[in-house]
Design a protein that fits this description.
Layout: H1 2-21, H2 27-30, H3 35-39, H4 47-61, H5 69-86, H6 88-99, H7 104-117, H8 122-153, H9 156-170, H10 181-194, H11 211-216, H12 218-238, H13 245-256, H14 260-263, H15 268-276, H16 282-299
Helix pairs in contact: 4-5, 6-7, 13-15
Amino acid sequence: METLAAIRWCVPTLILVVALLIQPSVSIYCEEDDCYDLLGVTQTANSSEIKKAYYKLSLKHHPDKNPDPESKKLFVKVANAYEILKDEATREQYDYAIAHPEEVFYNTARYYHAYYGHKTDTRAVLVGLILVVSGFQYLNQWTRYNQAIDMVKKTPAYKNKLKALELERTGGVTNKKKGNKQINKKMEEDLSKELELDIKGAEKPSIWELFGIRLLLLPYTLGKLLLWYGCWFWRYQVKKAPYSWEDASYLTRRSLGVPFQSWRYVDESRKDDLIERRLWEKPNMESYVAEMRKESKRRR
């Protein structure tokens, strides 16, 4: 019972303390002043009366007309009050705050949304977000690429290629001096630049692969895709022409579910064999799958 009585006493006290600490929502507009009083108009004044009152006071208290510091402060307040009351939306919010001063959080939220929410251009935010995402994407691609290059340079195959290139450059003569490490290191860097390192899954970054560039070129990409589908339909569905090697390669890769980057590393003779099987046709694909299963069981 004592605990319940203590809670009943503390709750109203806490509410009173919070109410005293929180700034009245009306004061966020014109501070301790009333916006209508600052302009010398009533709450029922129309827009033309508010505008007329503002121009009259601005001529009187403008710093160019009146050098008095107090007059300058009053001019700032008058200008702020006019900015609030000249707009129908903010004036309506201010009138609501006057009529409902107890709704502190609601009135404060409406004020900051009206004065700061609309000042941020959505298009600018969207462009900024795209640039940030593209920047992170580019940095991530370079990080992955450099890590892959470092791993490749530690492999015996890369060192053998580097050694062979060094022998080719020096005419079969190698520098066996151990004290000239800086020169050897520089030569290694120069030679490594000549080696074409094509690493699967970690290709050299390109700006054309960035999200922002792809989004910018989206209309062109869609147009090109529609044109490609149109030509495909006309050539192979209407005219019934035989598939070209490139198009047959595309159909084969799609039937096998092989990504383009992986298909690039398939041996050319293997590609020709798969294309000749015409795997995009269902019976041929079923026969190929059955053959692969038998091959897999035989190897076990």
